[in-house]
């Protein structure tokens, strides 16, 4: 069994995946999300629970297809 990977930073390049509909970034060590997250117009589900986020970027409001957001335990 591999040890867990604890991401601290999400690269802006992930926000170039225009057809992405679900993104699970739970249980990492993220302190922020890139402003470019707003480019994910087809994103329906975003799970960022269990990180170290103190806020979400304003650009999250541009994710017009987002119907489920879990930011618990941050």
From TrEMBL:
One of its GO terms (cellular component) is cytoplasm. Coiled coil: none annotated. Keywords: Leucine-rich repeat, Repeat. The keyword Repeat applies. SMART domains: LRR_BAC, LRR_TYP. InterPro entries: Leu-rich_rpt, Leu-rich_rpt_typical-subtyp, LRR_dom_sf, LRR_domain-containing. SUPFAM superfamilies: L domain-like (SSF52058). This is Uncharacterized protein. The lineage of its organism: Eukaryota, Viridiplantae, Streptophyta, Embryophyta, Tracheophyta.
